[in-house]
Structure formats: C-alpha cells, structure tokens
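Chapter review: from sequence to fold.
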Amino acid sequence: MVDDAVWLVVGLGNPGPTYAGTRHNIGYLVTDELARRTGGSWRKHKTGRADVVEGRLGAPGTASPRVVLARPRCYMNESGGPVKALATFYKVAPDHVVAIHDELDIAFGTLRTKLGGGDNGHNGLKSMRSSLGTGDFYRVRAGIGRPPGRQEPADYVLSAYSRAEQKELPFQVDTAADAVESLIRDGLESTQQRYNS
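The token string follows.
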C-alpha cells in the first residue's frame, strides 16, 4: 500500500555555474540523479522560486510514491522561502519533506538519514526550519568531511571536490538517491539500517 501523499524532495545548493562542482551543491547532484530516474525534466515552477520535476519514484508498473523534486533558484541561505511556497502549493506537510544536503561532521563518502534535529550551522537547513516553522522534516546528509588544516569551513564547502573525491562522487550521489527512494518507500528505520554508515 503506497501512501498517495506527495513528497517534496529538496536538493540544497547554490544556483549557477560558479557553484556547480562545489561540496555545498551535493543536494543538486542527488536531485539530478532522482530526476533522471523519474524520466522528468527540470522546469521553472509557477511560483518562480524553484525548478521542479514532478513524477513517481520506483520501478515502472509498480505502485510508486508521487514526488516533487525541487531545487530553489536562490542562494542556500534563502532556501526556506521557495521550499515553503512549494510545500503550500502541493499541500505537503513537513513530515513529507526531505532535504538533501552536505554535512561537515560526516566523513566524505558516508551518509546519514534522520528526521528532525538542529541545523548544525547549515544555512540552508536554518532557512528551511525558519520558513516551515519546524525542523521536523527528513534529512539525507551527505558527508563532505572537515576542511584540511586551517581552512575556514565557509571556504571549504564552496570549494571543488578533490580529484580523488571526484572519482568517488558518482557513487555517493547514487547511494544518496537510493537512500531518498528507500526513505519514501520503506520508512526511516529501514533506511537508517541500510544506509547510515
């Protein structure tokens, strides 16, 4: 029995080519993979504040959950406004919102899923929590690790992946997309057992 409520899956990142290959944009990469899986194409939503793909996640011919994949068309620290507008438009409750984001406190290549929690200094999460009025939405946290040496975290998240990391990145993106599908289809506990490392 598939829950027919719509899920809003938000890839957090910064728009434009300058930020495309940076650690902060893992959310965009994962939603690109999910869009590929639905067979949909990105289009500007009528609210004008995000690009969306509407579709179903899962094998063709199976009862699959309805999803709206979203990428806010603004900088990370303003993500909440577009997310709130989409949640209102599609009538999505916070417990059907999934945010995909980078996480400094988790090693690169590892993944964690959870419901709720603080924003841990992440401006995208902080903005979403403020606009939605709650932090009780799901998070798929893709590890990027701590900056080397004395590099500032703010500079680190906006820098490109290392050459070694770039080789591993497609695997991390694929696994994060799998985790999103699992979260929507099988629930949090099952997903945590399978993907939390």
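Two observations follow directly from the output. The first strand starts at residue 7 and ends at 11. Helices lie at 26-38, 80-89, 123-132, 153-157, 163-186, 188-195.
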